Every structure is written in C-alpha cells, then in structure tokens.
Amino acid sequence: MTAREWWAGGERTLGTALGRLVEADYAGASLLPDWDRAHVLAHLAGNADALTNLLTWARTGVETPMYPSAGARDAEIARRAALSPADLEAEVLGSTRRLADAVAALPEEAWTAEVRTFQGRTVPATEVFWIRSREVWVHAVDLDAGVGFTDVPDGVLAALVDEVFATWTRQGVLPEVTVFGGDREWGAGGPAVAGSLADVAGWVTGRTAGEGLRCDGPLPALPRWL
Ligand code: ZN
C-alpha cells in the first residue's frame, strides 16, 4: 500500500468512527488524558485545514504555514470543541473534504515541491499523505469508538513506530530498549520487548501500558511521544 492509500483508508475509518458517535459521546473521554472526543475531532478538523494549507503552498509557491502560530492552533481547537456535536461533525467532514479536493487538484509536478511542517521540517508535498495518515489512524483509535490498533494497516503501524523512534532520537531521549514487532526491530540494548505490531504501536505512542507485550521483567518507562 502507498501512503496515499493509507490516507484514503484512514479517512474512511475516521468517518466510520465518527458515524458511530451519538451526541452524548462528544463530551465523553478520549484515550488522550487532556482531551474529550470533541477536542480530538476539533484537532482533526484543524489538522486537515493545516495540511490543505501545505498543498496550497506546494501549488502556488506562496509560503502558507500549517498554522499561523501555536496559540492560533489551540484557540481554533477550543472554538471548534465548543460547537454543538452536529456543527463539529460538519466541520470535520468539511475540512476533510477540502483536503481531499486539494489533493485531487494538485498538479503532478507540485507533489515534489518543498513545504515546511509546523515542527519546522522541510518535506516534499507528498509527505502530507503520511502526516494525515498518522493523524487520522491514531486519533480514530483515540476516539474510543470501536477502532483499535488492530484495525490499522501493518504498514502504518510500522511507519508509526519508525517515527516515534526517530523523534526520540532527534530529541536525545531514546530509551534503552530493543523492541520486536511483527518482523521488525527498533532500538538497541536494554531489555527486549516483543509483541504484535498493534501492541507495540499502542505502547510506544503512549496509548497503552503495554498490554499484550512480552518482556523479561517490567517494561521500561518510555518518554512521551509528541
Ligand atoms: Zn494529532
């Protein structure tokens, strides 16, 4: 599967999770400590808009950042999270449709144009597919609406664990652990931790306490991811 297929499947799965939520669910807890489901959905809408901005940048050559500032990003999440469930659902669907339209409208040559993520990384426009895949798949799980890491394609799970380890390395906080998931391996030294890709991804992203994983002794503590 290509990252573009991961993205399309992730948007479908997010739509399925969204469709399962009734009004009263929006104020319910997500799997993230500080956000209810409405905040997760508000963030997903804002992320779609932000990635649409990157595709505008790639198409026009005019610098169009994902968000004007961290403060503006957070204020927009708070604004949308306070909407009625019906209005928030419409914002999520509208923003994902605008992103899909921007994808469809981007000329072939513009996909290699360089843009900058909110974290300051310079990437080709094609990276939008991975960034959005990561967001829709992980946050579809965070909605706690019947989607789990076992529903996420193996390629997405492996790329997710790659990204977590790369982030820890960049931040200088790589823990001493060797992780085996599926037929893949990450890290070096420390205790060996093994399990399914889904259980590994849930653990390294901080979504689970490591249920389903095997280790000689207690699981090591992990730094936060993002
Ligand atoms: Zn996110």
Structural class given helices, strands, pairing? alpha+beta
3D shape: globular
Query: How many β-strand stretches?
Result: 6
Major sheet summary line: 4 strands, mixed
CATH superfamily of the largest domain: dinb family like domain
CATH hierarchy, class of the largest domain:
Mainly Alpha
Mean pLDDT comes to 96
Strand order within the widest sheet?
4-3-5-6
What Rg is obtained from the alpha carbons, in whole angstroms?
18 Å
Q: How much helicity do the residues have? A: 40-55%
Number of helices, where a helix is a run of at least 4 consecutive DSSP H or I residues: 7
Ligand types: zinc ion
How far from one another are the termini? Answer: 26 Å
Please indicate the percent range of residues in DSSP E strands (runs of 2 or more). 5-15%
Q: How many distinct domains?
A: 2
Q: Can you tell me the CATH architecture of the largest domain?
A: Up-down Bundle
For this structure, the CATH topology of the largest domain is Four Helix Bundle (Hemerythrin (Met), subunit A)
Q: Stretches where pLDDT falls below 50 for ≥5 residues?
A: none
Order of helices and strands: HHHHEEHHEEEHE
